[in-house]
Amino acid sequence: MSPTKQILALNRFEASDGAALAPELAARVARRQAAFGASSVLFYKEPIEMVRAEGVFMYDAHGKRYLDVYNNVPSIGHSHPAVAEAVAKQIAVLNIHTRYLTKPVEAYAETLLSKFPAPLSNLVMTCTGSESNDLAMRIAEAATGKRGFVVTRAAYHGNTQHVTAISPSSMKSKPVPDFVRVIPEPDPALAPDGDVAGFFAGHLQAAIDDLEEKGVGFAAVIVDTIFSSDGIFADPPGFLQAAVDVAHRAGGLFIADEVQPGFGRTGGGLWGFSRHEIVPDIVTMGKPMGNGFPMAGVVTRPELLSLFCEETGYFNTFGGNPVAASAGAAVLGVIEREGLIDNARDVGAYFKAGLQAVMGNRRDIGAVRGAGLFIGLDFVDADGHPDQGLATFVINAMKEHGILIGAAGLWGSTLKIRPPLCFSKENADFFVDTLKTILAGR
Question: Which candidate among 41, 126, 151, 223 keeps its CA 20 to 30 Å from the CA of 170?
């Protein structure tokens, strides 16, 4: 088998769907496409016009309410008043670039860095996760003098030119470039005797050997620490330690992409790498950092950052502006005050158990896995093969029932479940009951 569609295309509106739209909506879509051209991406066969959101819910122009089980950008809940207040207050006072001393930025940096293991004590703030991963790659190249990177088969790490090169899931037709090696995701179903750690580390070693043999050299392995685009692989806890050891023995770095699993989503601390009891060389952050305000960052060891800065005069105009810092500080405060890490752990376990109960009564669900409020559910056909068609059907049927959900995985057959961290057991029950109804009515 081979993937037939990019993940983004699974529930994407296509021009061929336009004939079925009501005239007013068709005109809106045409206006959008005229302005944005080929880069326009809308979800669903019938696109939604969203007008507001609060907590775990979004509302369209007709007043229909949707349970958001898709977006991890507003991680502490849509339109959170603490973030809105912090941003409004700071932007009314001062918002400037980063070449001035500003207390909100300095205070935020110290608070955020206190959440990391001691060797990781320098922060560079950026505006997007793509910028963060691009910078992480440049730091790794400067530190090692090498240019080779290893990623997983369906990885997504952003959309700058450099980062797209290490994002196989973004490639429509071009192969990855010669400085990138692609290895299988840490799927227990692929690992002989269930040895996920050995399986993943072994493939990493083979990729490193090939990079060195070809004269490219090995700079770093970069992984999303819950492998979200690959289909969500969290277990067993600790399996990434072997990969870190392989990378370090080869003289390279381990980069933890926390853009999606970070800020409490896995329910075992703020960071996905904590689940594996490892200390990465570089950590990248994005989306949930500002709960919708565009901010991101890179945390690393001082010696690694110094090597990069010796050869590059890096400066980011908006990364680390005081409004972004105020948003980020509000997010960290809400996570702590509202107990959202514990909620992710407890509600996530309850949610996962409910989905596993559904799987126990069906042959078209192959697996349910994940950690905290980041869960993957695989759809399979009668022969046990990935069923992308069923995933597409469920995504659109869920939308009609008032639930927003997306897909992931090499085959695009995995429901990617990542609601706001304020998700409740009642929300989980609604999702599970709706999924049962949809599958029963096929």
Answer: 126
Nearest C-alpha neighbor of 388 from the set 369, 420, 410: 410
pLDDT, tens digit, 9 for 90 and up, residues 377-418: 999 999 999 999 999 999 999 999 999 999 999 999 999 999
Tell me whether residue 389 is in a domain: yes
Q: Tell how far CA 23 is from the center of its chain.
A: 36
- pLDDT tens-place string over residues 39-66: 878 888 888 999 999 999 999 999 999 9
CB-based contact 244:250 (threshold 8 Å): no
Cβ(152)–Cβ(233) under 8 Å?
no
| 237 and 263 inside one domain | yes
Residue 129 lies in a domain: yes
Q: Model-level pTM greater than 0.85?
A: yes
Tokens describing residue 9: 């295309």
Query: Do 92 and 116 have their domain in common?
Result: yes
- Work out how many domains the chain is built from and give that number: 2
Please check whether residue 130 is in contact with residue 163, taking contact to mean a CB–CB distance below 8 angstroms. yes
Q: How many other CB atoms are there within 10 angstroms of residue 39's CB atom?
A: 7
CA distances from 90 to 123, 293, 386 (A): 21, 13, 49
Length of the chain: 442
Boundary residue ending a domain (302, 337, 372):
337
Long-range pairs of 57-66 with CB within 8 A, sequence gap ≥ 24: 58/404, 64/402, 65/402, 66/399, 66/402, 66/403, 66/404
Do 151 and 99 fall within a single domain? yes
**Owning domain of residue 425:** 7-76+340-440
> Which amino acid, residue 150?
V
Which of 161, 176, 105, 175 lies closest to 130 in space, CA to CA? 161
